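To assess whether the prediction recovers the assembly geometry, we first specified each molecular entity separately, as shown.
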Amino acid sequence: MPHRITSARKLMQGNEACVHGALYAGCRFFGGYPITPSTEIAEGMARLLPKCGGHFIQMEDEIASMASIIGASLTGTKSMTATSGPGFSLMQENIGYAYITEVPVVVVNVQRGGPSTGLPTKIAQADTMQARYGTHGDYQAITVAPASVRECFEQTVKAFNFAERFRTPVTMLTDEVLGHMREMITIPESGELEVVDREKPDVPHEWYHHFEITPTLVSPMASMGDGYRYHVTGLVHDQDGFPTANPNEIKAKMDKLRNKIVRFADEVTQLDVEMVDDAGIVVFAYGTTARAARQAVHMAREKRIRAGLIRPITIWPFPDDQLRELLAHVRRVLVVELNQGQLIHEIERVAPKTCKVAGLTRYDGEVLNPVEIFKRILEVK
Amino acid sequence: MMADPIQSSNVTYDYLRVKKRFPNVWCAGCGIGTVMGSIIRAIDKMGYSKDEVALVSGIGCSSRLPVYCDFNTLHTTHGRAIAFATGVKLAKPSLKVIVVTGDGDGLAIGGNHFIHACRRNIDITTVLINNQIYGMTGGQCSPTTPHDSFAATAPYGNMEKGFDPTTLAKAAGASYVARGTVYHVQQLDKLIYGGLNKKGFAMVEAFSNCHTYYGRLNKEGDAVAMLKLMKEHAMPVKAAKVLPPEKLEGKFLTGVLWDVEMPEYCELYQNLIDSFQEKDKE
Ligand SMILES: Cc1ncc(C[n+]2csc(CCOP(=O)(O)OP(=O)(O)O)c2C)c(N)n1
Ligand code: SF4
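The predicted structure of the complete assembly is given in tokenized form:
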């Protein structure tokens, strides 16, 4: 059953937009556990999924939620969960399972302050590195981060597209403010946004290898019950999915996991770049913080300070090459984030020697406002 | 008398990944292989095609079972098999979903998923292989290790007492609860068959031997000696009904312990979806 909403223009919360984006992308399974500030996503899914012929289930915890969406995705159903810090931590072991078994799923983390129970009703961007390195072992993460309600919709669709294209879990990082903020959005018509579906095998059962090393390194994925009986395990496995202890096969699997994303990273990179061409100072920020940063940059321009903005919409893989190029002629980069300094280390890693890196952080549960950012621009310019 | 088809068949071979996955990881004489045979014979008797069966497990010696079987097989994370299986079943209810778990996997780390799947009464058959110890990691205490028994992490005897998985499953809301042993193989076949036949959550405890750890640490002897103990201590539930309590001392009950009809979760959900579809048509 298709997903329909009655009126195309709607005043909507970020969390609601995420629900509609997921349904637009073809998500038909949601397993979740309530947690502030993400709960509206689960509630929206509970209401709308059965109307679209899909399934919602409230699991007993986030470990089970993550497990359930992986199981559902293996049957060929696009699946999602949504949570916040404590739940994201609980999901990590099974997120790793999705990496190694190459199962496409989408995990939305509406960030709040941490560690632990932290600040349930207040904003933070402190899970930025957890989205990249949260589970154990070596892997490549894909993470998108919208900055408006409209983008919550679009980036949820993108998150599904990346998950399906690369057969991998994708995280979407939003935050308490974005999740609860209301903005007017126009719901795209069906067909207006690209929707990607996983590649399915077209070979007979005997020829099928669930983890075949293909030119794109992404293997066609049969659904359970379609007549391709295969084995799935979190143990490192060969191209048929059976556990292996052979060093060559182990390395081939680990290289596949890495290179299927690293080699095609350009396909997922999304950068919003404003007024950087002539800029002496560039502000680097994502999500809600980037909204204030944009205003601060405009305030600086009004004062004839050549400021610009780089806003990563895809945070992971980190856009190393693009940033090296963009920062080549910039003297200063100011990394603004709602944590004690996370992405600043990535910027320090990629910024050319000619570009000095400064930071502005806030981690008291409040947003950074444009004036604060503007003042910091004046300090470091 | 007609031979029981389940007893006279030797069908397991047809369902195994014989060329790819053998020899197996289990110790010679381990009861897990016997349970595998019972699961396969029960599936065969149900007449399921290999393609419609999803066999899901967690982590442990017992959870290695699916890799040897030619179904859709899913070897998940420790304790989480039932949660993965819930996603598989709900997203595609036409699949016949069977979970294989151990006493540690299903009742310690996975205990929460176990009780909630019973409560939901989702149509999954769970075979819990209870060897009263953690085999895979070398004989540590499990939630079914009896009080005063020895384990690698209970070198002075277990101070805790063990769970009874069957009373737990019944109390949590399962539709069908049974217990068999790897000594009583034909009965185990039937009990698992009964579980598969049940619309709802079915839990079959398969009492098994880990002679390598439990047997050695508790001086119960080798695999054969442990099977003999099962023979001596198992008491069919029907026979137990007519015996005085003193005759049941030291015995454990086997057979179908609980069997009721209750609304099944996936069906209830489908009714909801259908009701929206009907509204759409109007
Ligand atoms: C999260 C996690 N913790 C611990 C382990 C280590 N581990 C592997 S198997 C196992 C116990 C399995 O015991 P049981 O379920 O009784 O199965 P058996 O080996 O006895 O069949 C443990 C603790 C693990 N794999 N994952
Ligand atoms: S360690 Fe115990 S449970 Fe594991 S295979 Fe050996 S006998 Fe079986």
